[in-house]
Structures are given as structure tokens and as C-alpha cells.
Amino acid sequence: MPFLSLKFNLQKRVKLAQGLWMLYWLAVIVGIILFSLGIFFKIELRKRSEIMDNNESHLVPNLLILVGMLSCGLNAFGGKLCHDSLDPQKFSKMKPMLRPYMLLCCGFNALLLLLVLLCFLMQFAVYLTLAEGLKNAIRFYKDTDTPGRCFMKRTLDMTQIEFRCCGNNNFRDWFEVQWISNRYLDMSNDVVKDRVLSNVEGKYLMDSVPFSCCNPGSPRPCIQHHLTNNSAHYDYDHRTEELNIWNRGCRQAVFSYYSGIMNSIGALLIFTMAGDVAGLKYLSTALETMADPENPECESEGWLLEKGFKETLADLLSKVKTFGRANQVEEGGTSPNVTAT
Predict the structure, then answer these.
(1) Domain extents in the chain
(2) Which string of b and e fits 134-153 if b means at least 16 CB within 10 Å?
């Protein structure tokens, strides 16, 4: 007995074909969106590759571009199949292509499922890459005259301004590194000299942050130097007052941005995995089982599986076993014969 069989008349077949045609062309539009998202995501990763130590993975955007192109091609062909299905002459020409097409669609849906999983699993890798990359970016912030790091300062400043963040975890990350180059320090100044000599590693450390950490929405002019020195500013207490710099770390801010993109892509991919293959299977079987193909008014029956679910699963397992045995026989037959001399 067929699995999930339904009765169809002419009106139902026409409605199914029209509905599937619209669904396939909607999937083509989604494919274009996926392709565009893949390019956009790739550009966004490239833009901030410096703060990710140039170790960012482009697997997801590359697969997304591939899936977008495949989606456009497969769904456009599916739309043509549905459009031509109600014409007996055109359907007879298309019929040999139905089975390979549906197998290809099943493989495509498996690829979509893999991409959905990657969209969620790769977020952990992005988080770790950002943590290490931002740590190094802050360390190399001062190296504006070092080849390969000339634009690190600009990239990090623009990141902090765009994402309204400061430091890796928070603004205190800037207290642990020397972010002003020695070429801009007056080593003849006693204060500067004492600060450098008092540090074990000979670094000029201070409780200050770059200008890009400042919050322009604060009513008070930005306090970016001597953040923990209450006496350096009038009516100021760093322990109780809300600082007029960004409190959120850039790792959290940039990761939230990338994870938002990847979650949106995952949701869109789940939407793309619609039941168009199931609908096409119903339509093709409903057209094949027409008692009189010359009479479009006659009723027919459509189904998802020709046999019951258990019978189909048993047949599939037996085919897999037969295929495995055939391979073993071939391996045994091709082994060289040992003859006694």
C-alpha cells in the first residue's frame, strides 16, 4: 500500500502544479538572497581579518555562494517541470528526468542541512579566533611604522567606533599593554622615564584608552586618561560613576554581529528546505496514475512512497547489503592467485 496516498482530480492537480511553481520561483529568489549573503559575509570577514589574526574561516560563505547558485539552477528547473507537467506531450519528455532531479534535490537538501549545522557550530571557532585576534591587535596597535601592521591602529579604532566597544573583554585591556609608540614618548621627561623604568618589561603602561573608546552620547567631555585616578578630574569617582567610554568589549560586540548574521543565514536555509520535493513527487505520481491520460478530467492517486514506509526501508537495507556483498565478491575475484612452483 502506498505511503501517504492522496486522491487527485483535475482541479487539485492544477492547484498543486501552480502552488509548486510559485514555491520553486520563491526558492529561486531565496537562492539569490543566499548568494548575496555569502558574498556579503565573505566581505565582512575580509574587512576585519586583521583583528582575527588572518585566521578566519571562509568555509561558510564559500558554501553559501555555492548553495545560492545551485538553488537558483535547481529551483528554476523545478519551476519549469511544474509548468510543463499539465501538458501531456511536454510531461512525457520531462518524465525521464524526474527521478534524477529528485535525487539531486535530496542531495541538495543534505548539503543545506550540513550548512545549517556549520552556521551554528562555526560560531564557537569565530569566538576563539576573535579572542586571540583582538588580543594581538591591541598589542600591535602602536606599530604604525612596522610592515604588515601599518593599518592595525586604523582597523581597531574603526572597529571600536563602529561596534561601540572598547578593548577585548573591556576597557581595562588597554591598561595592560603599551599602546603608544616609543617614537611619541619624550624619554628625557622624568615622569615618562620613571614610568618606563618602574615596569619589569620596560613598557610605558597607563590607565588610559584610545580616543575611539569614547562614548559621544555622554554629556561629560570624554575622560580617556587617568581613568582610575579620582584626583585627576573634578567631581569624579571611577568606582561609582558611569564612565563615558564604552564598557562592552569588542570580542562580545563583533561576535554578536557575526553570530547574528550566521543565525539569520541558518534560519533562511531552514526555510529553503521546504517540501517542494514532496510536492513534486505527489504531482508526478498523480499524473502517472491517470487511468486515461487523454482525459484530463479523470481522477488519479498520488503518493510519497510506492510502498509502505517499513517496506521501503527494508528494500533499501537489502539493496545496501547486496551492494556490499557484490563489492566483497569483486575484491575476492580480483585478488591474485598464488601458484606453487
Answers:
(1) 3-138+253-304, 171-247
(2) bbbbbbbbbeeeeeebeebb
Q: List, in sequence order, the alpha helices (H) in the chain.
A: 10-47, 59-84, 88-139, 152-163, 190-197, 250-272, 276-288, 309-334
Residue 145 backbone phi and psi in degrees, to 5: -110, 15
Rounded to two decimals, the pTM is: 0.73
- Across 263-288, average pLDDT: 70
Phi first, then psi, for residue 302 (nearest 5°) are -120, 150
Comparison of pLDDT for 294 and 133, the residue scoring more: 133
CA gap 65, 310 in Å, rounded: 38
- 43, 313 in Cβ contact below 8 A? no
Distances (CA, A) of 300 to 4, 16, 201, 253, 319: 14, 13, 84, 58, 30
Closest CA to 101 of 123, 79, 117, 83: 79
Beta-bridge partner residues of 300: 8
Under DSSP, the state recorded for 87 is: S
How many CA within 13 A on the CB side of residue 11? 0
Cβ–Cβ under 8 Å, residues 316 and 296: no
Give the separation between CA 121 and CA 220, rounded to whole angstroms: 43
